[in-house]
Amino acid sequence: MKPSAKMAKLVPLLAVFFYLVCVSEAVFEDQVGKFDWRRQYVGKVLFASFDSPSQSSKKLFVATDKNIFASLNSRTGDLFWRHVDKMGPEGAVDTLLVNAQDALMVIGDGRLLRSWDTNVGGLNWEVVLDTGSFQAACFVGIQDTVKHVAVLKKTAISLHYLSNGHQKWVENLPDSDTVKYQAVYSGGGEEVFVLGMVPHSHLTITVYSLEDGEIIRQVTGPQLSSCVVVGRGVLMCVDNYTQALYTLAIQAEDSPQFRQVLLQSLDLEVSQDFQPVLVSTQPHPARSPLPEFFLQLGPDHHILLQLSEDGSTIAPLRDFQPAFLVSFATTGEKTVAAVMAPKNTTVSLLYPGLYVHAFLKKDDSVGYRVLVQTEDHALTFIQLLARSRVVWTREEALADVVTMEMVDLPLTGTQAELEGEFGKKADGLLPMVMKRLSSQVILLQAWMAHLWKLFYEARKPRSQIKNEVTIETLSRDEFNLQKMMVMVTASGKLFGIDSKSGTILWKHYLENVQPNAAFKLIVQRTTAHFPHPPQCTLLIKDKDTGLATLHVFNPIFGRKSQISLPALPRPILQSLLLPVIDQDYAKCLLLVDDQYKVTAFPSTKNVMQQLQEMASSIFFYLVDSEQGTLSGFRLRKDLSSELIWEVVLPTEVQKIVAVKGKRPSEHVHSQGRVMGDRSVLYKYLNPNLLAVVTESTDTHPERAFVGMFLVDGVTGRIIHEAVQRKARGPIHFVHSENWVVYEYWNTKSRRNEFSVLELFEGTELYNSTVFSSLDRPHLPQVLQQSYIFPSPITTMEATLTEKGITSRHLLVGLPSGAILSLPKMFLDPRRPEVVNEHSREENLIPYAPEMPIRTEWFINYNQTISRLKGIYTAPSGLESTCLVVAYGLDIYQTRVYPSKQFDVLKDDYDYVLISSVLFALFFATMISKRLAEVKLLNRAWR
Amino acid sequence: MASGGPSFLLLSMVPTILLLCIDFACCNTGRRTSDGLDTDFTGFSVPLEHSFEVDDVSQFRVRGALQLRGGRETSVSLSQNQLSEEDRSTLKEVAAVDGLYRIRVPRVSLSADRQSDRPMDGFLTAFVRACSLVESHLSDVITLHTDVSGFLIGVSIVTIPGACRGTEVEDEVDLEAFNTTLNVIAPTNAPQPETALFIERMDMENEKRGKPQEQKSFFAKYWYLILGGAIFLMASSSAQAPAGGAEEQQS
């Protein structure tokens, strides 16, 4: 009775203790935004619209390829509001129509029709449309008021009220199996026109009554392409074959006829192999379009034409060449045509989107603003007044970050000078002395300059001192907390971002990157080797052909490096960074091609020599998930390689989902864990260990399983093989130190579960000095425990610190956009079922099957990150601090302190008290010493 | 061991045997459909091949045969040949240049009923440094790994001790016969969250802590009310009799 009562008392005590230990993450209100920042993005703009035709309007609406509808501030480029819909085709925006206060969107290939209030971004209504793929939509208005919207689908047309979304009528389209309906038009009358084409045959126009959806009449015509409505209900088409324009008055009651106008008669000619395109404008949906229209005759050739009042003649107004993009904009009664022409022909950026906003200025003249979407996913807003200027630019490529690295900033000039002195090779005594003296002089100069700056700035008011980060002022801070984030985006644009402020310091657009390319970013030389600049290498691999290219650049300035690149004629299977460094301190990168030949980069003589010496100890592995094979190779002296081991997982049973090694930069501080009885349990720290995760091909909930294999990457030895029954993916896992944590879906209990594997060598180390995969005959002990996790997760990463002393936390990205910092202590397979003396001594938390989610563990408080895709962690110069970057649609950077800031004095540390106590003690000692001397002297005289 | 005929290569067959069987009983679901027949199954053998060449171009020769015996407990035994004089010298030469000693087994299924289904092609290979094999006097541990349905997915070989210290092996006899330990390892089942045990423990703790407290607290909390009630009852019952007298007695 007695011990159990004691234990019962201890359990809550322990709980309180761990609670105190673990609560460390919560942010105080005054710390918000001090160490962290978030940038929100929307993606590549598909549709854009301006608010109202006045100069004071600030709103700008965009719908993007990331299924986002957002409102931007046109003065600053900031977001007013943003609505993030489902990923994939289900949430894809088909069209965006804006009329006064209503923004209409058709979503998911005609699945939903939504109306938004453009003032506040609230949803007015949403209706589910009938099935059928979406073709076109337009507003329908009578007598200058827009009351309806028409939605054209493949087989039906429906009319909805603008006020509440209710359907007025829906009609099946005639002959919808042969006719391809393309466009819907209303010119302010009582009729709705639908244009359809029968491929290689003819064109039909069906006219519906606005009132009840009855077919009033049908008109057929010859086979044409690219049709628009111009002027007062004149259908204008262009045909490439006959090189002619065709006009048809569609509103005429009696059977109208097409009129042909040869392009030759207008002195026009279409470029070779170019399909001519017509562009017209309808300023108000309840009125007819303007008689002016553009005809595109070539990739960079546009012509502005005008249809005469009676619709009989076409006259060219102006020829624009070169001109890539044209657009119309209207304000009040005035309409402007905007043409984008390249200033110099070397500009190769394509402009997929041009949106013009024209507005009346106070003096009734027309002003323009232009929104340009470029191919590198940058969104630029230009004001065209007396002097054109770029108002803002949004780098929307950052909405899709693929991979990133953090690079230390370079030292300041003075620090670098000192470093450089040690870096250079010694050449005699006298030059060394001279060098030392010169560097001291430089240091003195820098110090004087610094003093002068201090003095100068002290006189200026504080607000005037600029504290902006520029590429010139970049230098490492005391604790290396500020770093350069090198981000690679899916569009092929590279960014260098200051981690402290989030400012983009450099950007570089890689042209000719395939949309499905895979990227791998490698830091070949860090900043530590002054005067050699740091060097990053981006491996770009085409997923279809497997061919790879290298882009070598300086991560601090973004400049492409002039190093000669190796020729890579064959598909690349694997790349590995060796610790071998050449005479310029660049690490050697090995690229393995599909014939298992190895290319080294850089391939200097020095490196080749080292490689030949080390060849027999360089091993690499390849994974073929289609065949289910894992194979190991050893490098030969002639840079070919030989197969030395093979593990085959039959694909009929399970398929390899992911393979992960450990991060090479990781440090493990302690070799073992001290147990309750003061013995040491040594960790199995195999740097070559690979965690291979498989999923069963059988997806039946009773038979599905997830396999976890731990394989030595050098010998191919399967260290551990475990099967999680009744489980399936998606699997997220972290492999670090001596543990693997993975998360899966339990198909039987229908919940997410965490499982942790830890490997120990036992109480004795086999060979404590060095680890060799070739000489480790005994298998490690494997401990495993599983827990219920009350939320699905999107990504997972472990914190990383400089020396590995700080306890580890897992950063778990949740679908809600929060990042949970989960102490690894909770994921410990040695958590005891029953508490005893030893486990209490070890501070083990008693086992509980459910993992808690505490809101104070959310490191990003209310700064949620939409569509979180990855988390990157990097150590800082402070052991307690780990830098975290989370990316997805948004980018969020913060610092975490898994063991609190044990190596930093608090902000409110009482310096006065401690120094006064010190001084007091010092004087007390002096006085008492004096007194003691006097007393001793007196005693001696006695 | 007495037969050490140096010139006759394969005459001396010393069967160094066998080991082990890790039971499959724990982890088979769909595999064991024909339980009754398993005991009658006679087993089959697959070759274990090895290769050690000075120029490191692998040329596999038969080292022995793995006797697989399906059944309730899959057992695997190994019978293998002695190394010939020539082999021994080659092995020592390979060890001297730090070459590799490789082994391979064909991809087969250890479970009896799957074996005949579909012959699989290809081999599973593993290696060990030849010098460690020599220095350990040919004492090695070969482990066969299977997946959930009994297919062989990997093989590994280690020597005990595993290090190469450069010690010279003088005695030729040490390199004649393999001293092999053979293991078969099937995947272990990863644990599920232990909810049942935890609830049991919680209940026990609650019982221990909760019950005596509750019983005690009921009387401890309300004894004065009960007592007061009793006194009140007594007082009111006595008040019906001579009024006033009872009150005086009480005080």
UniProtKB/TrEMBL annotation, chain A:
Question: Could you tell me the keywords of this UniProt record?
Answer: Disulfide bond, Endoplasmic reticulum, Glycoprotein, Membrane, Signal, Transmembrane, Transmembrane helix
Q: Does the entry feature the keyword Glycoprotein, yes or no?
A: yes
> Which Gene Ontology BP annotations are present?
protein folding in endoplasmic reticulum
Extract one GO cellular component term from the record: EMC complex
Looking at the record, the residues that make up the EMC1 first beta-propeller domain are: 26-396
Main localisation: endoplasmic reticulum
- Subcellular localization, as worded in the UniProt entry: Endoplasmic reticulum membrane
Tell me one Pfam family matched here. Answer: Beta-prop_EMC1_N
Q: Which Gene3D superfamilies match?
A: YVTN repeat-like/Quinoprotein amine dehydrogenase
Note the InterPro entries from the entry: Beta-prop_EMC1_1st, EMC1, EMC1_C, Quinoprotein_ADH-like_sf, WD40/YVTN_repeat-like_dom_sf
What superkingdom does the record give?
A: Eukaryota
- Which residues constitute the signal peptide according to the record? 1-26
Which residues belong to any copy of the ER membrane protein complex subunit 1 C-terminal domain? 736-941
Q: What membrane topology is annotated for this entry? A: Single-pass type I membrane protein
Indicate the family of this protein.
Belongs to the EMC1 family.
- Quaternary organization: Component of the ER membrane protein complex (EMC).
The protein's name in its UniProt record = ER membrane protein complex subunit 1
- What gene is this protein a product of? EMC1
UniProtKB/TrEMBL annotation, chain B:
Q: Coiled coil located at which positions? A: none
Q: Which Pfam families match?
A: ECM10
Q: Which GO terms describe its cellular component?
A: EMC complex
Q: What is its main location?
A: endoplasmic reticulum
Zinc: is it a keyword of this entry?
Answer: no
Signal sequence residues: 1-27
As for subcellular location, the record says: Endoplasmic reticulum membrane
Query: What membrane topology is given?
Result: Single-pass type I membrane protein
The keyword Cell wall biogenesis/degradation is annotated on this UniProt entry:
no
UniProt entry keywords in alphabetical sequence: Endoplasmic reticulum, Membrane, Signal, Transmembrane, Transmembrane helix
Q: Quaternary structure?
A: Component of the ER membrane protein complex (EMC).
Family from the record:
Belongs to the EMC10 family.
- The protein in question is named ER membrane protein complex subunit 10
Species annotation = Esox lucius (Northern pike)
- As recorded in Swiss-Prot or TrEMBL, the protein's gene is named EMC10
